[in-house]
Amino acid sequence: MGIVLGPNRYGKAETRVVRVTRDGDTHHIKDLNVSVSLSGQMEDVHLTGDNAAILPTDSQKNTVYAFAKKHGIGEIEEFALLLARHFVDETPTISHARVEIEEYGWSRIPGKSGHSFVRSGTEVRTALVHSDGTGGTGTGGTGNGESVISGLKDLVVLNSTGSEFHGFVQDEYTTLQPTTDRVLATAVTAQWRHRGVDAEFAKSFAEARRCLLEAFAETHSLSLQQTLYAMGRTVLETQHGICEIRLAMPNKHHFLVDLQPFGLENDNEVFFAADRPYGLIEGSVLADDAPDAPAAWT
Amino acid sequence: MGIVLGPNRYGKAETRVVRVTRDGDTHHIKDLNVSVSLSGQMEDVHLTGDNAAILPTDSQKNTVYAFAKKHGIGEIEEFALLLARHFVDETPTISHARVEIEEYGWSRIPGKSGHSFVRSGTEVRTALVHSDGTGGTGTGGTGNGESVISGLKDLVVLNSTGSEFHGFVQDEYTTLQPTTDRVLATAVTAQWRHRGVDAEFAKSFAEARRCLLEAFAETHSLSLQQTLYAMGRTVLETQHGICEIRLAMPNKHHFLVDLQPFGLENDNEVFFAADRPYGLIEGSVLADDAPDAPAAWT
Amino acid sequence: MGIVLGPNRYGKAETRVVRVTRDGDTHHIKDLNVSVSLSGQMEDVHLTGDNAAILPTDSQKNTVYAFAKKHGIGEIEEFALLLARHFVDETPTISHARVEIEEYGWSRIPGKSGHSFVRSGTEVRTALVHSDGTGGTGTGGTGNGESVISGLKDLVVLNSTGSEFHGFVQDEYTTLQPTTDRVLATAVTAQWRHRGVDAEFAKSFAEARRCLLEAFAETHSLSLQQTLYAMGRTVLETQHGICEIRLAMPNKHHFLVDLQPFGLENDNEVFFAADRPYGLIEGSVLADDAPDAPAAWT
Amino acid sequence: MGIVLGPNRYGKAETRVVRVTRDGDTHHIKDLNVSVSLSGQMEDVHLTGDNAAILPTDSQKNTVYAFAKKHGIGEIEEFALLLARHFVDETPTISHARVEIEEYGWSRIPGKSGHSFVRSGTEVRTALVHSDGTGGTGTGGTGNGESVISGLKDLVVLNSTGSEFHGFVQDEYTTLQPTTDRVLATAVTAQWRHRGVDAEFAKSFAEARRCLLEAFAETHSLSLQQTLYAMGRTVLETQHGICEIRLAMPNKHHFLVDLQPFGLENDNEVFFAADRPYGLIEGSVLADDAPDAPAAWT
């Protein structure tokens, strides 16, 4: 039996960059968390510690900051692509780059100051980009070796009615009572894959987010899976540049509290919001002509 | 030398209750985290394990749920007072109750559904109430033995300019360069003490929050202490029912990145948002006629 | 374009179970966090909300507790296999089960009590099992459709010397200075795949953990990749039942503090332990005859 | 009504310092998290932003690092005292310093390497020191204006039997059943105040910790309060240099799972470890001749 090096990657994770842009007295800010992972000719560094192929993770961090200055920060998908292509194009030993970005939202504080902001929402916008350089900046191609996934996480939503759960399998360990009215709450993690790498990401994000919220609110739910699928389907139906969406939705249980011992009825009014355990529903929705790209998600 | 029992308290912490109220098809929700602490005749339970004076923490939890049904949940200060007075009034062995509540904000999801919500903001509204029962429901008094503190936490704000820091002490360990333009960012924790226990808490909260944001945005800052004081002063000046405010504001450092090695200038455009260490500024602002009530804060 | 359901799974996550076993006055405890994910005939539930194929996540939780009683809890790999096979064997609509377990360690408190324990270590032992039922309890086979991965996470280790980093790529964004002596610290996440499903998991775990620590300590490191590979290789060389190991090791930077402004030398004595950003090194080490099983890791 | 500045303090929080000391090939490490808070002539900085009295928090951080080099790091109480006295003695505008330290434990990795360590335990050792300078280095006095509190947190312990709970108050919201055998689990936070500032802190800490564990294990508990008091009393009885101890102990509920629906008995064998809500028991135990020092704890 021999022992060999398997798949590997390395990079600088969680570089926190805040970029201020001025438009006279009106400022704009972008607040990102950037994680880079590179792969390529990595045999030597693993087997002998020879770093000749290694671009230091410190240099990767510097690149994030320098690019924030040189190119500004537009949509995070574009910034991720810029970075990913740079690492592959400029470092001969690197053949593949993965760049993941989280963006935190800020709103303006009402008033006269154009430079004052307050963090908005618990929700985080995300991007995940892969590049092997073949879709390089000049080509504008669909990027055989490139992929762009947009998304969001920690979008916490709740329906206080309009959710049922019944007709399920009854085995010897089933004690759950069916219900025709329950609270449905979840923290949505969604990631959607674009067909190309040149989408209008700002518009696409706003639309996808709107679809997710709308489908969550307007689906009369018989199961969280049904809601999940409806959310994904709505995005694909309205956003033709998106070919696949993956959703992970914990069922954040809100248990009806038994108030009968206190002589009180509880007509779906008082709930205990539990922490653990929780249901976890994960699923993907696909256009049937979606090109295969499993590596885009890793 | 003898050994004696000192100050003590016990209770149920972090009871998570969600209350739904229906107005036809339009639902309203309140989402709270309630922590109760009781004290009183506690010698025996500590010295011998005799629980005759102990109202179980489980019963306290039940009370939170039952009260959510019976009384509904209005402003959290009022719900905390109801609970605190109940424990003192109804349990002979309990002479003092402390109730602390966190409230999480929800907004409606736009659209036709009246029962769909999305978590809004990272910020949490808080209340801290003490009662020894003497201000009981009927009296409406200022409550010698009662106190109400309102507040908020995790209100994350940032000024991208309008902040300076210079003229400080230079000792042998000082290497910091003075600056006339820096990013000022913090996560505000604020607690304000009411003169009475019958304030209009919803209005008072909205106004205090507005004052905090406005003063943060509009103070040209020479130090975070100056900003903190301005924020507190603005609340006291406009809200005469509030006699004291305490603020804790971490200086969430945003360090200017040195881009000179890459031939780039950084004119307050690109920042590294650091985690630790951070400055921590804590201070209180008082009306000079504020009644003494240190125990209100514990 | 049509829209179709893609890969999906659902289950109960993070069921926290503590199992006490008595041997006279001497008690033993097992403290687990169990997450179940099932897949199978899931079209209907997604498309129409028909739950006829759905074993409720609540029943899955009940099963964890009932099995803890009926079968006791031995090694977590075995408990995970028992659960996974049960769900596939007993629920006709379920064709695949994934069970993930975290185990928290406890030590005895020294003294006479046989029932008193203290949490030991920050480290968590893990298991990840897949089953499609074909390796059922009776067969003892290698389990075509079954796989067992053991592991650990949050094993935090540090070498205060014996680590160098130099000879790396210099690009226009490289400012890092080479070093021949640095602190190397990481929090190891390791997962190793067994060739079969009948290993001696307790012994195998103890040996793998010992190998990881030993290789970390005794590798004179020229790069974190070299250390990672040495750790993986040592496990594979000594544990022939293991055919693949994956490691994720953040480079928890300890930066040498510049004390020259204070007239002090810092001969690798005083370090700033940084939070973010951090390097992240991920890699796998394989036996060259390792059977292919990418799905085992998902 | 006038508005005035109330109590305030400021400083650098969470400076993470790792100190390596070499004894030939055998290294020793100290891993601390240091938080400094200063107070003094702070009117101007709050009212006008004049920083003439302000020692920058950045200088405080530098001081921590420089002192780690110059003085080494012995017991954290001593290091905290050194720092606190320095700030008060050397900065004319500062009249009071508070230094809080967390220490993370490391063990040696078995083997030949003298420089390899693994993080041990979830538990954190703590110190909290106040100084107004009057107990200065030379005097060795009891330090009227100085106080030293030692402690620990996140010491997670569990008794799988030997705990009862009955005989409690029954009110209209009480549904809890009395029990003569339950699991008792908690995460101990303990802080103890020394009579002087010159104790043998290493020995004292080891003894206090041993007492806490022993009393937890060997108290047959009728209530968590009884256990808490026994733990505190044991420390005070054996450590005469300690005059007060404060304990906060969440009751980490382990609920017996009802297995009857599955035809199984549960004779205190299978438990659900709940997250929230939890009981919270807080209490102090005092020597009856303990000098008054409430400010020591703030």
UniProtKB/TrEMBL annotation, chains A, B, C, D:
Molecular function terms, GO-annotated: urate oxidase activity
Catalytic activities: urate + O2 + H2O = 5-hydroxyisourate + H2O2
Role, per record: Catalyzes the oxidation of uric acid to 5-hydroxyisourate, which is further processed to form (S)-allantoin.
EC number(s) from the headed UniProt entry: 1.7.3.3
Record key words, sorted: Oxidoreductase, Purine metabolism
InterPro entries named in the record: Uricase
Protein name, per record: Uricase
Pathway note: Purine metabolism; urate degradation; (S)-allantoin from urate: step 1/3
Gene3D superfamilies attached to this UniProt entry: Urate Oxidase (3.10.270.10)
First-tier enzyme category under EC: oxidoreductase
Encoding gene, per UniProt annotation: pucL
Entries under SUPFAM superfamilies matching the protein: Tetrahydrobiopterin biosynthesis enzymes-like
Family under the similarity heading: Belongs to the uricase family.
